[in-house]
Amino acid sequence: MQSFHLTATGHNLNYLPEYIARRHGFFQEQGLNVTVSIPTPWDGVLDALADGTADMALGGIWVPAMYRDRVTDYTVFAQIANRCPLALLRRGHQANFKLDDVAGKTVLMKSGGGASVGLFFKMLLRENNIDPRSVDYIQDLDGVMLGNLFEGGMGDYFVTDNLSARAMAERNPDISVGMEMVSQGDIPWSVYYRESATITPEVFDAHRRFCIGLGKGIEWVLKHDAESYRDELGELFPNIPVEVAITVTNTFRREGMWTTPTIPRHAFDRWQLGLADARLVKEPFAYEALVNEPATMA
């Protein structure tokens, strides 16, 4: 059995098929003993790639794009999350919420896990012809801190992960979910990558086998209603009410969070435009500049 170590930026519901693949033996079927570590702070994933203690990193594709031709070149070889796993919380339960309701208001956005939250939300505003400058942001604080402050009265809206948003709305009758962003189109939200210079034929073959196991994990999740493995969800996410985890999992299944390990070109191009508009990259990268997918060789 070949050791294969993953360094990840967090433990999230949108990574569920990977957890299922590990727990159900799909990686072992490919001869891989997959282990995981989550560094604090999250950018320790880059250190683990640099010193060779990790075979790959899991996180946002904006990092390989931002670093390309500036610091270190990374190659992306698969995705796990095909949609954005965020939600927008609001005060009250007004009907017919519209995204342009946020104009002129204050939006809290967690940033402890990187820049993805602000990048996506502002891109979504631009895509809907809403000037991001028409909104005030509080986004340089930890997500738990911002959640407590939002419940305490700070701001008008709060962008956080869907699971936390649903849990907050369940326990606080004065707060509701205005938008689940999983419904807002394809985007390669969470991807696997490695330093390009370290990829050998042997490494690429291990990536290929990892992608086969990951694909089986995705297929399993798509075939099984979350209610049928509530105990497993409870073990994976013990701090979230299991009914919330079940509801969000089934929403993700229905809305296209998980498809295949292959990154769709249209989704890649959409996110690259968003990163360029945010000035993280000078101009959008071509697909082949960042992506080399052994998933297509399964």
UniProtKB/TrEMBL annotation:
Pathway: Cofactor biosynthesis; thiamine diphosphate biosynthesis. Its cofactor is Fe cation. It catalyses: N(6)-(pyridoxal phosphate)-L-lysyl-[4-amino-5-hydroxymethyl-2-methylpyrimidine phosphate synthase] + L-histidyl-[4-amino-5-hydroxymethyl-2-methylpyrimidine phosphate synthase] + 2 Fe(3+) + 4 H2O = L-lysyl-[4-amino-5-hydroxymethyl-2-methylpyrimidine phosphate synthase] + (2S)-2-amino-5-hydroxy-4-oxopentanoyl-[4-amino-5-hydroxymethyl-2-methylpyrimidine phosphate synthase] + 4-amino-2-methyl-5-(phosphooxymethyl)pyrimidine + 3-oxopropanoate + 2 Fe(2+) + 2 H(+). Residues 12-138 form the SsuA/THI5-like domain. It holds the Pfam family NMT1. GO terms for biological process: thiamine biosynthetic process; thiamine diphosphate biosynthetic process. GO terms for molecular function: metal ion binding; transferase activity. Responsible for the formation of the pyrimidine heterocycle in the thiamine biosynthesis pathway. Catalyzes the formation of hydroxymethylpyrimidine phosphate (HMP-P) from histidine and pyridoxal phosphate (PLP). The protein uses PLP and the active site histidine to form HMP-P, generating an inactive enzyme. The enzyme can only undergo a single turnover, which suggests it is a suicide enzyme. Belongs to the NMT1/THI5 family. This is 4-amino-5-hydroxymethyl-2-methylpyrimidine phosphate synthase. It comes from Penicillium canariense.
